[in-house]
Amino acid sequence: MVTLFRWLVRLTVGLIVAGAALMALAWYFAVRSLPDYGATYEVAGISAPVEIVRTTEDVPHIFGQDDHDVFFALGLAHAQDRLFQMNVLRRAAQGRLAEIYGEGALPADDLARRLGLYRNARASVEAQTPETLSALRAYADGINSWIQQINLGARGRGAPEFFLFPDNISYWEPADSLAILKLLAATSTQQIRREILRARISLAAPERGQELMAAPGEPPLPTYASLFSGGRFAGAERRTLEADWPTTLAGYLAPSMGAGGSGWAAAADRTAAGGALLANDPQFALTAPGLWYLARIELSSGGVIGGTIPGVPLVLSGRNTELAWGISPAQVDDQDIFIEEVQPGDPDRYRGTEGWTEFATHSETLGVRGKPSRTITLRETANGPILPANYLDIASVLPAGHVAALAWTGGHGDDRSMSALMALMRASDRQAAADALGMLVAPALEVVLADKTGVGRIVAGEMPIRDPASVSKGRLPQPGWIAGNQWLGQEAAPSVAGDLAPPSGIVAVTGAPISGEPLLGFDRGNHFRQDRLQHLLDSREVHSRDSFIAAQNDIVSPVARSILPLVGADLWFTGEPAPMGTPERQRQDALALLANWDGTLSEHLPEPLIHAAWMGALQDRILRDELGPLADELTELYPDFLDRVFRDTNGAAVWCDIRQSTPVETCTQIARQALDEALLELTARFGPDLESWRWGDMHQARHVHPALGDLRGLSYLVNIVQPTSGGNSTIAHAGVLGYGRNPYLNVTGAAYRGVYDLADPDSSVFIISTGQSGHPLSRHYDDMSELWRRGEYVRMSLDPELARAAAAGITHLEPPGR
């Protein structure tokens, strides 16, 4: 027995020692991939020495002999800090995620191949301007130089993720950066998703379904079923919505995920310091590391500083010495779904405008980690590529014997969008910027501009030219064999006279339509954020940098201010006071809190949580009776719809009556029942004391690491979780997940914020949502996340002496033999 005990002790000690040794070894290899920001590297591909000066926040300031060397160094700096992210973004665009992630990434790869993101990117390389092509090649050379340094110096494969997701990293090519820009364009638009949802709602509620998604003043639509006489549809089925959010973010970006943003500017005569001001906050899914990376590059045209996306040699939002610019996805209607009839008995042919026509087809092979490769056949019609039937539940709107094709303005290879954005960085004034953006195709952007003489705004990018005979005007999937439905071509988005010199000296965009402007689409952003932003800008005659920062961090919900008085109009302070501890008393207490609330979605208050739960339960009760299982998927709040219902616009109050019950329910009754349901749910989570509830207990920003964020144990190291204020409709956008165990998780937001002050340019500020480094063991992995959460910033300066004075390290790049 003593001998057995001794051996057990020895075995236990041995296992502990072995485990500790393995952990030490893993730590050693992981730390090896942390870059030394004070090192000197001899690299081929530059003509003279280059300096990369890193500030205390790890923001690189790059100084070189010429533009080629500067873009080379930008590529190297991006690769030092974000190599895994860059490789994943490239793979997402190429349709090669399953090669490292396994079978779960196959649907994303399948879609990327069918959209032809990488194929079209390669075709567009030679379409770029000479200056852009030179920058792309230099940038690729810089990335490849760092990959060589990793191999030569045994630098832990460049990122710790590569130990868990082994990958033979191929050298970077100019087409890779163009493909990431294509992926960004496909991510920014949600038109496919909107069209499919409209069709599903029309099938479920043909009589009044359009009221749910209709924009104010939108002309009526035909019912979807009427477009396909005799067509048989599968109909809505109950689906499980517990989608795995990290899987959704496997490639950081994904087609139809959606993006947003805000931008506004004030001319010099509307500012306290006598110089133009501009603010911008592009909004994407929150990841760790975030999508954005701060950088300054010193070009022959002058210094440029702002937000970049690793993998792309562009400052997408920022300023140079003369001009500031901010971008927001324009939410134009740049995609249409065409329903194509397959010839009975011959799956290789479809019905064209002049009869049965052969699909254009070719095959591609998808690699799968640990599994045999898969071969897929890609088909295309005159309208565009055929989409997978399981994508966004397209199958539910397909008549039997039909497939869906996609027409998209970004779905071709003759695309100089990279050159347009490259020229924007070098523009010296608003007119030069507008001229440069004339080349933009996709993503379509609303660009706010400011220079020393004024401010302006343009919508840049291309839109389809639709035949006036089109039956749905792009709002519903429509028959592809009818010539009047097909696109007549593409053209630049319409401009508005005076946009480059508004008389008010103020411009503001949030992706929502603006009164009096040309129609850019029916599924644009809601007007509530636009109205709130315009109110804040109009409420002051003179603005300052601080007032712009305050607006950028504004957390007042215009939806709550508009909808709550309407929904609760017949509930406020009605009835006798109920006894303590009863459901009636809890309802009265909740209504009393909401009646005195100003709509501020602070993480420290209970009212935002009560409001969100109430409106969610209310909309679900109203819709479920009409839409059945489809109601499970309508996780977004439709405030204009609720407004129409509670105002009984065109008889919309009929939605409140439950068809399956004998009594005729009123909207007041439904509102009361929904509030009780919401309070029961919240009480089960947090107890009966309403005033102890906090919005931030549920509304937490979850910055997910796409590769490691769902792995038990590692998720605590790599994911960044923090309570946040704001919501879907606040200017400080903090979008919620909408489903699952915690539907209030904050999963989208302004992952980059910048405020540019042309009166005192070096007082301009910016921030990103996580940190500069993508390495989980780096102190710069999350060092900006708490500043971002609190609405704070770091200084944006083009002064080289300031950069060097606060340098945390200076990387020197030397040409060979020097």
From TrEMBL:
Keywords linked to the UniProt accession: Hydrolase, Membrane, Transmembrane, Transmembrane helix, Zymogen
Family listed: Belongs to the peptidase S45 family.
EC class name: hydrolase
Domain of life of the organism encoding this protein: Bacteria
Keyword Isomerase part of the UniProt annotation: no
InterPro entries registered for this protein in UniProt: Ntn_hydrolases_N (IPR029055), Pen/GL7ACA/AHL_acylase (IPR014395), Penicillin_amidase_A-knob (IPR043147), Penicillin_amidase_dom1 (IPR023343), Penicillin_amidase_N_B-knob (IPR043146), S45 (IPR002692)
Name of the molecule in the record: Penicillin acylase family protein
Record-annotated membrane-spanning stretches: 7-30
One Gene Ontology molecular-function label: hydrolase activity
Pfam families according to UniProt: Penicil_amidase
